[in-house]
Predict the 3D structure of the following.
Amino acid sequence: MVLKITKCEKSRINDVDFNNLSFGKEISDHVFIAEFDGNSWINERIQPYTPLQLNISLSALHYGQSIFEGLKAFRDINNQIQIFRPIDNFKRMNLSAKRMCMQEIPEELFFKGLNHLCNIDKNWISNKQGNSFYLRPLLFATDESLGVHASKKYIFAIFGCAVGAYYSKSLKIKVETNFTRACIGGTGEAKTAGNYAASLLAAKIASEQGFDQILWTDSIEHKYIEELGSSNIFILSDKNLITPQTSGTVLKGITRDSVIKLAKSMNYNVEERKISIDEIFELSTQQKLTEVFATGTAATIVSIKELNYNGNSIFINQKNDTLSSILKNKLDEIKHSKTADIFGWNYTVKINEPSTSF
Ligand SMILES: *Cc1c(COP(=O)(O)O)cnc(C)c1O
């Protein structure tokens, strides 16, 4: 399949202040789009970032078949573009597609889109410290009929935005014991739009109460911790690094996996298991709660300074050389090829597919 490339007439890049990027606002000039017509993938193209024409009967809007991914590209010290662990995002996207009864994406298509988008908008990937290019692949259902069914037609798209260093100010967290993000047998492990829609009200209430984020708990007893709004959580007690196991209700974060692998390589004892909020409060009472931090592609690694559970708070006094800051630096060095990529996480952007320009 030949990719058609239509370039924008005028780049918007001169309007962007790369010293002062917000998250998700500085969308680059082009997008990659492919359509599944019920039989095959067609109309693969790079086109300017402009509105699409779609009908309001679009099934994604009514019945929620919509999934996405989030990954980052970096300009490394050799000025090459490296994408961090894209094969893992590809695999997770197809697991989400399976769960939501959607068409799966061919690996070749996913990587063709990433390569071409990063190449055509390479000027948006700056080498400034802390900056990166956030890539957002998404897949949504495009059947136009009202009967409830799994759509036959889909659009797969990737767009990207220049993003800066997420300010890693320490977070004040509310442990949620009323609303539920995910339950066993539900869609918690899929990166699907509806999970976010369902979480917004609880997040809004927590924000009005002065919290930065919510820590979700299990849906049955609201006793065991699960994850934050869009990041996973780790508890450090001496040399033991504990994180909730992923058994259907927790999103399997790729940053989570990177942290587990790095920590193990540093001889930390990593435990993936059930951890109750009572256990965390008990560790705090015994002064054995060393660190608490969150992990995700957007936020990378961010420390948590306060956990509030039904009105009672514990405070975590983190020192300077925290494990979370060490892990964050190590990850950063790998992403920028400053240190050996011993886990094989970087993917160097290349262009080898045929394309036609218009
Ligand atoms: C994307 C996401 C994460 C973090 O996953 P990463 O692969 O590390 O970016 C965690 N929780 C939820 C609910 C998410 O959607």
About this structure: The chain has two domains: 4-164, 171-335. The longest helix spans residues 193-208.
